[in-house]
């Protein structure tokens, strides 16, 4: 068994699953625009092309229900039927919400604040320029297409500059920079060495990211998301608060073309409505407005629960360092001096949103295994318990614990134990359904939330994984590691999440006491 490939597949599936709700919302948004008569031949064609790729990607990663829904959307691009399209728009939004639990964003409000989706051109595949040796490039090309990137090896000068990034080693990057000068797209540098001098060389060459060979796809995709968070499928959400209509229209256009969903507020006192509807990831805030200054508004928002840490980028004609320092002291974020160039605006906003998304990821993921951390798993369990109570549906929680990991650590070393934990997490991530949540409870224990599952279904699923895990021993540093795990499963009976967890932990103890490598259901004795 190739453990690296297994882990990579699981990471790719996780990455893809994270992007899927955004993609569904995007498709639904554009169908909505076609539905309300905004259809242009270009929009329909672009949507159809994107859908073709997305269907293939969903099938590859096993998201069959999404693939079927997107197939219906594709039919609607060619043979529209008003009723079917309206149902489809709703079904796409509902599925997106089910997948990530985030509520729908509404397109228009009665206060005149308009929520706008990104420009239709951002629906197209993202052009990516890879200037690496042919074999390396070819290996990356097909899987990158599944994530919506169109890879080219030798784009012309204009296409090169329009690429979202160029992936190159030091020599190629140098040659491209000499050719394109300041039209060079952001650079992801690939190198052989993981050392400070190699990384320093990349920084000096202006690289936004440095990846050590062999290039792991999840790492590359995450680097590209950091350069442009719009490539993650979920458009960055930006609220523009600016009293000048002409300037706000300009910022709005630039940000929509950069792939953002936006809302514009010209009267700062109307900001709450837009905040609640758009749920922005960043506010672009003019410093000088008549009813209330940008700084005052920032202070107000920073005192309100839910908006205390929202990043802000200030727009100002002010160059007085003391006043700028005051703005920075409030939000700790960026400011841009007017008149703002389009590229500057785009870079500042996208970079700040990417940083915010990385922080959220860091806060919810277990660093060693990439599955949810304890807090995130706990909140997934709380949400699913509440949902199961509301809908009267079944739900199971499984507490999984590696048997005798202490002994394995002593015999083969802590790194071998880490590899076991990573392998098990990858195995569960791969076999779980898209509605399941897998997380690390701590040490050598994992938790699995299984909505819609009865005890018997949960036993069947986990026993399949247990048998595979036992049948295919892990190879670590040429040594065969025979490892197994035990599981306690509890079925939800309308009570609290804490009770479900306690019951699963109790069942796990029974499984361990009975010799391990087994599964025990809490409600049977
Ligand atoms: N390699 C590695 N080991 C860990 C990690 N976290 C916890 N452990 C080890 O997991 C073991 C957990 O101890 P126990 O709960 O007694 O479990 P066990 O040795 O697996 O034995 P049983 O659960 O009784 O089968 C300890 O030896 C920890 O050092 C980790 O992140 N990496």
Automatic annotation (TrEMBL):
Give me the reactions it catalyses: 2 GTP = 3',3'-c-di-GMP + 2 diphosphate
Tell me if Phosphoprotein is a UniProt keyword of this record. Answer: yes
User: Which GO terms label this protein's molecular function in UniProt?
Assistant: diguanylate cyclase activity
This enzyme's EC code(s): 2.7.7.65
Which residues carry the post-translational modification 4-aspartylphosphate, per the record? 286
Keyword annotations: Phosphoprotein
Locate the Response regulatory domain: which residues?
A: 237-353
UniProt key word Phosphoprotein? yes
**UniProt cross-references to NCBIfam families, sorted A to Z:** GGDEF
Protein name, please? diguanylate cyclase
